[in-house]
Specification:
The complex is a heterodimer of chains A (83) and B (151). By secondary structure, chain A is α+β, with helices and mostly antiparallel strands. Helices cover 27% and strands 28% of the residues of chain A. Chain A has three helices and five strands, in the order E-H-E-H-H-E-E-E. The chains are: A alpha+beta (83), B alpha+beta (151). Chain A binds chain B through residues 6, 8-10, 52, 56, 59-61, 75, 77-83, and chain B through 34, 50-53, 55-56, 59-60, 81, 92-93, 113, 116-125, 134-137.
């Protein structure tokens, strides 16, 4: 499936990318995280188990077992710090 | 209901006036303003930059105002959150809640801020003498939001 993946704040800076389009064969947000971890380096480091990050699908916060719909906009970002 | 993300400063008095104008059924307005501090985690902070997730931010704020409306009888809500570069003393966020009686206004205002802190996709980056750093989320903010969870 085609996904648009966005990164924000510290993760955008560390990955050196704000947005990318992926052709991806997994089913869930967790599958996507595993795929991104497999890139190694900062991807493996920042998305390691126990690291705090959030995932949104089509602009709603989700748990990692959430299913990815076709053409989803997925965002991965650090815990929020507004207000 | 008014939800705005903007770079510019806001005026609490003007927002409250707009909320109450011609509406004599309002008996209470509670408001909160969050300000940029000049220190955090033991370091001086001489500026901060606020980033957000355009689209999701508006959606998340609307959802938490809807949740407040479902929990209390509210007559109006205004949420304004600034983005971009801010200096110490600058206002960051405004929440104002109008209701018939003060109890709903106080509670809903605090609820909206607590949820905003943990649900709305904003991130702060501070400029300190040691360099720039992203602000880490606080466990105390999660605890503040969690106390509104009904068993």
């Amino acid at each position: 499936m085609k996904l648009r993946v966005l990164y924000f704040a510290r993760l955008r800076e560390r990955f050196g990318v704000a947005e990318e389009t992926l052709d991806f064969s997994g089913a869930t947000a967790a599958d996507l995280v595993v795929h991104l971890q497999s890139r190694g380096d900062v991807w493996a480091e920042e998305l390691a188990a126990g690291k705090a990050f959030r995932v949104a699908i089509n602009q709603d916060l989700v748990a990692l077992d959430a299913r990815l719909p076709e053409h989803a906009e997925v965002a991965i970002f650090p815990p929020v710090t507004g207000g | 209901m008014k939800i705005v993300i903007q770079c510019e400063a806001f005026d609490l008095g003007a927002e409250v006036d707009a909320m109450r104008r011609g509406r004599t059924g309002i008996g209470a307005i509670a408001s909160f303003i969050g300000l940029a501090r000049d220190c955090n985690e033991g370091s001086g902070v001489h500026a901060m930059t606020l980033e957000h997730y355009p689209g999701m931010t508006e959606k998340a704020l609307a959802a938490l105002v809807d949740e407040a409306n479902s929990r209390w009888t509210l007559l109006d809500v205004t949420v304004i959150h600034r983005i971009g570069r801010l200096l110490p003393g600058d206002p960051i966020v405004l929440v104002a809640v109008a209701s018939q009686h003060r109890g709903e206004a106080f509670a809903a205002c605090e609820f909206i801020m607590d949820y905003l802190k943990t649900q709305a996709p904003f991130w702060k980056k501070e400029a300190t003498p040691e360099g720039e750093r992203w602000v880490d989320a606080r466990a105390s903010d999660d605890a503040a939001a969690a106390r509104w969870n009904t068993p």
